[in-house]
């Protein structure tokens, strides 16, 4: 059961980490902390890759044997990475808020 919980936590962490990349790219955002080009398509690809890794890890978790532990641990993994993102991204480390304000001011005038 511990192996199931650990793998499910890791899977939830990967999926939870991939969702912001995917949604940012899907909405046209290119800024991200990745070392790759700052393009929306790259964000979508990174997000899909992270979600795929999470799905592969989940497939090894033996969820059928311990469903409550697996789903609970998966949720905790997603929660953990969500809280990490909330804390780090709150500071706007990539300057997105300033860039958006400058773009809005430039298009308004």
Helix content: over 70%
Structural class: mainly alpha
Helix/strand order, N-terminal first: HHHH
Q: Approximately what portion of the residues adopt beta-strand conformation?
A: under 5%
Shape: elongated
For the record, the count of structural domains works out to 1
The residue-averaged pLDDT reads 87
Q: Distance N terminus to C terminus?
A: 61 Å
Q: Which spans of ≥5 residues are poorly predicted at pLDDT below 50?
A: none
Q: Give Rg in angstroms.
A: 17 Å
Number of strands: 0
Transmembrane segments: 42-61, 68-89
Keywords: Membrane, Transmembrane, Transmembrane helix
Descriptive labels:
109 residues, mainly alpha, 4 helices, 0% strand, elongated, transmembrane, transmembrane helix, membrane
